[in-house]
Amino acid sequence: MLTFIQLPMLILSPLLFSIWQPHMQQLKTKVYSSLLTSLISLINLSSWAISVSELKSDETLVFFNTSAWFNAETSKWHVPIHGWVYEPENSIVRKSLVSKILSAAFDLKVDENTEENYNRRINLMMADNERNKAIVIKFANITYTLTKSAPNGHFSQTLLIDDEIFKQNKISDQLIYHAVLKTEDPRLFEGRVNLVQPTGISIISDIDDTIKVSEVTNRKQLINHTFYQDFTAVAEMAEHYQSWLGTGGALHFVSSSPWQLYEELVTFINDAGFPEADLHLKSFRFKDKSFFNLFAKSTKTKPAQIEKLITQYPDRTFILVGDSGEHDPEIYAQIQQQFPNQIKQILIRNVSAASLSDDRFIPLLKKTNSNIWQLFKSTSDIEPF
């Protein structure tokens, strides 16, 4: 779309050439040529007018952590940039209405201990998504204009970056970039991309009831843990993740939680001491059919996300960590069948009094390598591998 500066320039460009062309044939002097070159350069510089992000002062921006992968044949990094533009909401009427609905349905009430969590998280769920926003980012002294945001406020683009650029700028393990804003806007919006090497150990993990107490099988307690209570980490899981990954490991969380809660989840993950990770969450929007994604089974959403991750790193080995509350065992068995040489271990936190000799697990173990499965109630039950 043309800006208010570009449109006049577009109109003036043919006019300038029509004026100068007859004279150029007769007066091929350096003076005239130089002048014409300067005018053309001025027209081209009109792109400067859109070299900052289209972000209003009442709108905010979140960059989601991502992981890049390297193509040795082209010596280029595939760098995914993913973010969300939205206008924060703080509607007392809507928050009160939701509170009344949850109180009537589940007998959950907002009190002085839960009010702060409830207000912050419900506000995020009700944020006003901003579409058609072009975000400009900068790193290594280079700017990139990203594709415009969709109706859900999300924008996503994978940049191809020469490895030499990272080497020259001493960027090795992680790329940190920022949004280019108007000079009068003092805010700072930063994003991070983990540069994952082609070989090594990676963990693909669920969140709810795997590393965070959620009680997913109890709808009331799930809502209570999601919107009212402080997030609580499963004991000692962070230490195990750190140990399993060591140096050069990569962590990917694939969850059915909505993207609106990304910042809440990242704060929890960091505070609990987990390695820095990227997150793959569920798209959800009140105003279109994606609303039903919030209630879709994880078997409909998670396999494709996991398959994509493993395909991007064909020479890495993976540990899959989930829980027995919903469908992680079935999903991971399917993944192990698809990528038998890359799946090193499948660890399932037992939240349903399950057993590997149950009717549920027997067919899963028959289809896969049964030696890589572990079912554990606490981290002390996990055997070294």
Task: Please describe what this structure looks like.
The protein is of the alpha/beta class and 385 residues long. It has four domains: 6-50; 60-87 and 129-195, Immunoglobulin-like (Sandwich), CATH 2.60.40; 92-126, no CATH class; 200-381, HAD superfamily/HAD-like (Rossmann fold). 34% of the residues lie in helices and 24% in strands. The protein has eleven helices and 15 strands. It has helices at 6-26, 30-44, 92-106, 115-125, 163-168, 219-228, 237-245, 262-271, 298-312, 328-338, 362-367; strands spanning 60-63, 66-71, 76-87, 128-129, 136-139, 142-145, 154-162, 174-179, 190-195, 200-205, 250-258, 277-282, 316-323, 343-349, 373-376. Strands 1, 2, 3, 4, 5, 6, 7, 8 and 9 form a nine-stranded mixed beta sheet that branches. A hairpin with a 2-residue loop joins strand 5 (136-139) and strand 6. The chain starts with 5 loop residues before the first helix and ends in a 9-residue tail after the last strand. The relative contact order is 0.10. Mean pLDDT is 87; it is low at 1-49.
In short:
The protein contains eleven helices and 15 strands. With 385 residues, the protein is α/β, with parallel strands linked by helices. It has four domains: 6-50; 60-87 and 129-195, Immunoglobulin-like, CATH 2.60.40; 92-126, no CATH class; 200-381, HAD superfamily/HAD-like (Rossmann fold, 3-Layer(aba) Sandwich), CATH 3.40.50.1000.
